[in-house]
Write a structure and sequence with these properties.
alpha/beta, 2 domains, 38% helix, elongated, disordered N terminus, DAGAT, Serine aminopeptidase S33 domain-containing protein, Hydrolase_4
């Protein structure tokens, strides 16, 4: 939805911060009214006297039937194909808002503002400071304001076009804000999202304030400026007449993306060719019409000043990298034409001790403006969202949005097509029915089963529970999906972002306790890695420890235990090259040893085959078509059986 100038921002939105104190924008009455939703709508109480056990049973049955009906009607995940895309604002709207902001701000020092689109947030939401790139507008998160505003308190830094504040003074300005907010809420983390130049500011802030709980999210940092082609623009701009603006067209092309790639993406979405031509023509005409806006954002003198600032910013940030000990998430673009971002991300990843990186192969420099990128999804997938000093995988978890679920569903559609899963559950009277009607609605519930090869049964299981019953299964997963004992050949942690997005938690007694105490639906595989990486002839063999403590924990919270099993692995694939085969080959034996040393070891005190936690990649030959059958037994009550 297009936004007009004055309505985009809160009243007096540009709060000057020049006296050394961070000034909070308190114009709450100017925010859009947010709808308040209730988990349950109250209805007039019905008082009835039941004279027989049969009457009470019928009342309970009707109540459950109404509850299940409500679940079906309110399930936002039930039809992934019908979920609409989370269409962000367009590039045309971005330039229009930049134009409006330049009119409003005119001159003056850098200042903070909160876009009205961010809406209201929870009182305990962490603060997010956005530090812009070379444009200085502060609208780089334009497409993400609405989603970010639900989980963060957002302040964006705006640097007026004519402002000549030095890099050092920008760092001091942001530092004053950080210190002020840290003093006000010392237990709340402060997120700094820095793009290009802003990433350099963020690194300097982190180095100068080791006592502050900062979480850095750095997009294509300008720390690689010395290896950037932008450096060659400085001498050119020094002699270029003001009337010449060829470089604007070049930079606009970088911002708008590759039209050919956009066309292919639209074909993949099912658009007809004439629609593609129409949309691309409209976009290109709109972008060309805002060429003058870009020229106003970065006139020759301003661009020259910003490039010289980038040079000093890069030098300063690199000299302070050794002092940065904060949690950091690097977001780098594979097709960045301004900086060697992918190469730089790898360098920073090696230098920063608490760093993770995510690579977006098809993206350009202006990552936040690209249609296919979602910052909130990236933060959630990397398990970087927390409200306190330490990450709590249970209380800090945010369920997937309908559109996030749709994307996960579409990426796993081939698994559903290949396995054609059938779910069978058991009702309270012992009757087995097709579907998940026998699954308890209210938690805590513990689902206990065995792994198929490579955990191939997981995707259909988790997706079907959400679609049919609106139940999110919180998988208790191996730590290899969350951390590494050391770096090496294991899959990048980004490969497991989907698992974390869908609620997986690393296996531990405390996480198990928190899941059950919060009445979650927890998914447990006692056989773990040994079961998921089984050998030939072990398709349905259990590798459970002799003493399983999950029953004791479940009974402590009165959780229902639902045992389940899955068959069909031998219908869809044949294991032809297993662990025993690979251990006979010296090079593969060494490879398996290296992989195993990279992951956190579990069950080091266990005995028997379950203690064999070696990690290997099995060789499988597909056999299609096939089908998975899931059978869920009758829920076992533990309430009142606490030992």
């Amino acid at each position: 939805m297009a936004a007009t100038g004055p309505s985009l921002f809160v009243a007096s939105p540009l709060v000057t911060s020049t006296a050394g104190n961070s000034v909070r924008n308190r114009c709450l009455s100017s925010f859009r009214a947010m709808a308040v939703s209730e988990d349950q709508k109250s209805s007039p109480a019905t008082v009835a006297t039941r004279s027989t056990e049969k009457g009470r049973w019928l009342e309970e049955k009707n109540r459950k039937g109404r509850k299940e009906e409500e679940e079906l009607t309110s399930n936002i995940y039930s039809n992934p194909q019908e979920i609409t895309d989370e269409n962000g604002n367009t590039l045309r709207e971005y330039f229009q808002d930049c134009k409006d902001l330049m009119i409003q701000s005119k001159a003056g020092p850098p200042r903070w503002f909160t876009p009205l689109e961010c809406g209201s947030h929870a009182p305990d939401s962490p603060l997010l400071l956005f530090l812009p790139g070379i444009d200085g507008m502060g609208l780089g998160l334009f497409k993400h304001h609405h989603k970010l505003g639900k989980i963060f308190e957002i302040w964006c830094l705006h640097i007026p076009v004519t402002d000549k504040t030095s890099f050092t003074d920008l760092v001091k300005l942001v530092e004053r804000t950080v210190r002020s907010e840290y003093k006000r809420s010392p237990d709340r983390p402060i997120y700094i999202v820095g793009e290009s130049l802003g990433a350099c500011i963020a690194l300097d802030i982190a180095a100068r304030n080791p006592d502050v709980d900062l979480v850095l999210i750095l997009a294509n940092p300008a720390t690689s400026f010395s290896r950037s082609q932008l450096q060659s623009l400085i001498p050119v701009l020094q002699v270029m007449p003001d009337q010449l603006s060829l470089y604007f067209s070049y930079m606009l092309n970088l911002a708008s993306g590759d039209p050919l790639r956009m066309a292919f993406e639209n074909v993949a979405k099912g658009l007809m060719p004439h629609q593609i031509v129409g949309e691309l023509t409209q976009d290109l005409v709109a972008m060309s019409s805002y060429l003058c806006v870009l020229a106003d954002m970065l006139p020759r003198e301003t661009l020259l000043w910003k490039l010289q600032m980038l040079k000093s910013a890069s030098s300063s940030a690199n000299s302070h990298l050794h002092a940065v000990k904060n949690q950091a998430l690097l977001l780098c673009s594979g097709k960045d034409q301004l900086f060697p971002s992918e190469e730089e991300a790898q360098r920073l990843y090696r230098m920063l001790p608490k760093c993770e990186k995510r690579v977006f192969e098809e993206s350009g420099h202006f990552l936040f403006l690209e249609d296919g990128f979602d910052l909130v999804t990236a933060i959630k997938g990397a398990s970087f969202y927390r409200q306190g000093k330490y990450l709590d995988y249970v209380s800090d978890y945010i369920p997937p949005t309908p559109y996030e679920f749709k994307k996960i569903y579409e990426s796993n559609r081939w698994v559903l097509a290949v396995t054609s899963p059938v779910m069978l559950s058991t009702l309270e009277d012992g009757k087995v029915v097709r579907g998940l009607a026998g699954i308890p609605s209210e938690g805590p519930v513990l689902y206990v089963g065995y792994h198929m090869l490579l955990g191939f049964e997981l995707a259909p299981l988790v997706l079907q529970f959400l679609m049919e019953r609106n139940i999110l299964l919180r998988g208790i997963a191996h730590p290899m999906m969350f951390t590494r004992a050391k770096e090496g050949r294991m899959l990048d942690l980004g490969s497991f972002d989907t698992y974390r997005l869908m609620g997986a938690v690393p296996v531990s007694g405390s996480n198990f306790y928190k899941l059950l105490s919060s009445k979650s639906h927890a998914l447990l595989y006692p056989g773990g890695v040994r079961e998921a990486l089984h050998r030939k002839g072990e398709e349905y063999k259990l590798f459970w420890p002799e003493q399983s403590e999950f029953v004791r924990m479940a009974s402590r919270f009165g959780a229902k235990i639902v045992p389940f099993g899955v068959v069909g692995e031998d219908d869809v694939g044949e294991l032809v090259f297993d662990y025993n085969d690979q251990m006979q080959i010296p090079s593969l034996r060494t490879f398996i040893k290296e992989l195993t040393e990279e992951v956190v070891h579990l069950r080091i005190d266990a005995s028997g085959e379950v203690s064999n936690q070696d990690v290997y990649l099995p060789g499988v030959v597909p056999k299609l078509p096939g089908r998975f059958y899931y059978y869920f037994g009758k829920p076992i009550e533990t309430k009142g059986k606490k030992s």
